[in-house]
Amino acid sequence: MSAAETLTVAPVGGPTLPQERKLATAIPGPKSAELLARKSAAVAAGVGHTAPVHTIAAGGGVIVDADGNSLIDLGSGIAVTSVGNSHPKVVAAVQEQVAQFTHTCFMVSPYESYVAVAEALNRVTPGDHEKKSALFNSGAEAVENAIKIARKFTKKQAVVAFDHGYHGRTNLTMALTAKAMPYKSGFGPFASEIYRAPLSYPFRDGLSGADAAKKAISVIEKQVGADNLAAIIIEPIQGEGGFIVPADGFLPALVEWARANDVVFIADEIQTGFARTGEMFASDVFGIVPDLITTAKGIAGGLPLAAVTGRSEIMDASHAGGLGGTYGGNPVACAAALASIDVFENDGLIERAREIGAILTSRLTDIQARDARIGEVRGHGAMIAAEFVDPETNEPDAALTAAVAKACIAQGVVVLTCGTYGNVIRFLPPLSIPDALLHEGLDVVAAALDAA
Ligand SMILES: *Cc1c(COP(=O)(O)O)cnc(C)c1O
After folding, report:
1. I need a surface site. Which of 69, 366, 400, 440 has the fewest CB within 10 A?
2. Same domain, 39 and 118
3. Is the same domain home to 119 and 247?
4. Do the strands 374-380 and 383-388 form a parallel or antiparallel pair, or are they unpaired?
5. Same domain assignment for residues 336 and 371
6. Probe ligand 1: pick from 141, 271, 292, 308, max atoms within 8 Å of CB?
7. What is the rounded CA–CA span in Å between residue 306 and residue 14?
C-alpha cells in the first residue's frame, strides 16, 4: 500500500501536523494532477498557481497534499499565514464567532469585534497621534479606499506611485502597479491621474537614499506638481517588485517632503505588516510615521480582512456612507484578526521574525559567497530575497530563477518568485516554521541552484 493510500482521513491542519518534508509521490502526484485537470476545465485560465498540488492541510511550516506529500512552506500563501496556518487561537476565535453570527453588515447593525480591530490597529500602527481605521476585504480594496480618503481630505486628485510598485489588481490599483505582465497587460484603460516616480533600488541605481529621494521629488515636482498631488503611495519594502529595500534616508526624505507640501503619505504595508520585517511594521524599520497605512495579508491568520488606518483628521474627511462595503470587517474575519494580533504582540513573533531573518540571511549569503549568480541577498526579518543575475553583466536572470523555483517545488519546498525582471526568489516563511525545516528548505534551494 502506498503512502497516498494510507491517507484515508485528511490530517487536521495547524501546528500539530508532522513537521517534515515528505515526498510520497512525484509532484504533482495522481490526486493533485486530477484536481489540476478539473481546475483547468472549470477555473478561468487567468487564475494561475505556483505549486501543482491539491492542498488538504497546512500548519507550522508545512503544506500537506492529497497524495501524502508534505511540503515545506517558505511562502505563507504570500505573507498571509504569518501566525501559522490554522493557528489554534485563530481557529478557536473563528469557531466561536461563526456559531454566534456570521454577518450583519457593520453598516447595518454594528458589532464589537470590528471596533476592537480598529482600536488595535490604531494602537499598533506607527505613530502616537490620534488615529482611526476602516475595514475592508482585500488589500486592493484598502488601497482604493486610502486613495479615496486622501483625495477627499486634500481636495486634490493626482497620486504618485513608484517604479516596481505593486498595489493590486483592481482598476485603480492596476494603474498604481508598475509591472505590465502579468498584472496589467490588455486590461486597460487604467484610472487617470496616476503618476510614477523612480524608487531607491541600491543594488541597481547605486544612489544614496538622499540622492534617490532628490531624484524622485524632482520628478514629482516637475511632472505632477505638489498643488495637484493628493498622495504618494509606497511599499516601505517592495513585495512583488522584488523585496527592494530603499537606501537609508530615502523614505524619511519623502515623508518630510509630503508633509511640507500637504500631500498624504500612504505606506502600503499589506505585505510588510504584522511582525514580518522583524518590527510590527516596516515603517518602524525606517523610523517613518505614515499619514495613512494600508494593511491586509498577515492581519487575520488567513481570513480575508484589510484596513486603512491613519490620522483622524484625514480618516474623518469622508462623509458618512462614503466608505464601507457589504462585507468589510466581517465578524468572523475580525475575530481571526483579534486572535492574530494577540499572537503577534504576545507570543514573541517579532523576535521570531528576526531569528528567521538571521537564519535566512546567513544561509543565503553563504551560498552567495560561492555562487556569483546571486547578485544580492536583501530584506528585513522574515522577508528576505535573493536576486539572481548573470555574474558577468549583472543582468537579471529570470530563466535561472524560474528553474531554481521549479526544482524546489518538485523537491517539496514551496518558494515564490518576484521582481519586475522575474529574477528574485523571496522567502516569506510562516513565523511558526521550526528552524530545522527552514534549514532543510534552504538545503533544497542550495542544491537546486547547484544543479541549475
Ligand atoms: C498583495 C498586495 C496588495 C493587494 O492585496 P490583495 O489582497 O491581493 O488585493 C496590495 N499591496 C501590496 C503591497 C501587496 O503585497
Report:
1. 366
2. no
3. yes
4. antiparallel
5. no
6. 271
7. 23
Q: List the residue whose alpha carbon is closest to atom 8 of ligand 1.
A: 139
Q: In a mutational test of the pocket of ligand 1, which residue from 80, 81, 167, 243 has the highest number of ligand atoms less than 8 Å from its CB?
A: 167
SS3 label, residue 37 = helix
Question: Which 3-state string (H, E, C) describes 343-405?
Answer: HHHHCCHHHHHHHHHHHHHHHHHHHHHHCCCEEEEEEECCEEEEEEECCCCCCECHHHHHHHH
23, 120: one domain? no
User: Which structural domain, as residue segments, surrounds residue 359?
Assistant: 3-83+348-451
End residue of a domain, out of 293, 328, 346? 346
The pLDDT tens digits along the chain (452 residues) read 455 455 567 889 999 999 999 999 999 999 999 999 999 999 999 999 999 999 999 999 999 999 999 999 999 999 999 999 999 999 999 999 999 999 999 999 999 999 999 999 999 999 999 999 999 999 999 999 999 999 999 999 999 999 999 999 999 999 999 999 999 999 999 999 999 999 999 999 999 999 999 999 999 999 999 999 999 999 999 999 999 999 999 999 999 999 999 999 999 999 999 999 999 999 999 999 999 999 999 999 999 999 999 999 999 999 999 999 999 999 999 999 999 999 999 999 999 999 999 999 999 999 999 999 999 999 999 999 999 999 999 999 999 999 999 999 999 999 999 999 999 999 999 999 999 999 999 999 999 999 99
Q: Which of 270, 295, 299 to mutate to test the pocket of ligand 1 (most atoms within 8 A of CB)?
A: 270
Is 312 found in the same domain as 374?
Answer: no
Which residues have CB under 6 Å of ligand 1?
Answer: 138-140, 143, 166-168, 235, 239, 268, 270-271, 296-297
- Domain-terminating residue out of 300, 325, 346: 346
Report yes or no: 135 and 206 within 8 Å, Cβ to Cβ.
Answer: no
Q: What is the CATH number of the domain that holds 144?
A: 3.40.640.10
Atom 11 (ligand 1): residue with closest C-alpha? 167
Residue 353 and residue 338 share a domain: no
**Nearest CA, atom 5, ligand 1:** 139
Answer yes or no: are the C-beta atoms of 441 and 413 closer than 8 Å: yes
Question: How far, in Å, CA of 163 to CA of 397, rounded?
Answer: 19
CATH assignment at residue 419: 3.90.1150.10
User: What's the structural domain count of the chain?
Assistant: 2
Q: What ligand 1 atom has the least distance to the C-alpha of 138?
A: 7
- Nearest ligand 1 atom to the CA of 141 is 9
Residue ranges with strand state E in 235-290: 264-268
